Amino acid sequence: MYKYLPLFLLLLFSCNHIDLVDDEEENTDTNTENTNPSSDEEGDVLSVADIIGGTGQENIVFVDGYIVGYIKGNSLSGAVFGLPSEEINTNFLLSDSPDETDIENIIPVELPRGEMRDELNLLDNPELLGCKIRIEAYATTYFRVNGLKRLYSYELLSDEESEEGSDEPDSESDKGLSLPIDHEALFTGEGR
Asked: Which of 65, 70, 92, 181 could pair with 152 as two cysteines, CB 3.0-4.6 Å apart?
């Protein structure tokens, strides 16, 4: 009879109520699967200063700014205001001014692999330096500062100051490009 006592005790104690952590409750702050990243209306378009100040953090936002450079290395201190001189095509810097050179006034933008990286990196597209752009992306920490990741769409904007009074875009590229993204597939990993 005593030889079955350990098994009996194991069964007895395993039948007691065990409190489990509610995974759903724990992940509410970091779960982005249920976030509706894009809608027909863009709502408020944020500035680079808004993102620097923490507005929109951990949400999908629209941000307007100018492409002013890229980051070489692994921190904002590696900011380069200008074109890449080496094979760096994974990010660019966004600012509220096309002439910005102060790292306190810029945010890094991650370029995901694929079509958008090919179309927006400064290494392959030097003509984008100084261009105004509207980005739909996830506002979060990038290079240890407030920045943008998970680029969903973008649109190149014409800069009213440089159009010299023209209301019509000069070329097809000035009209902007907005690429639709399957947001659900990004979060679930489907479609890769």
From this structure: 181
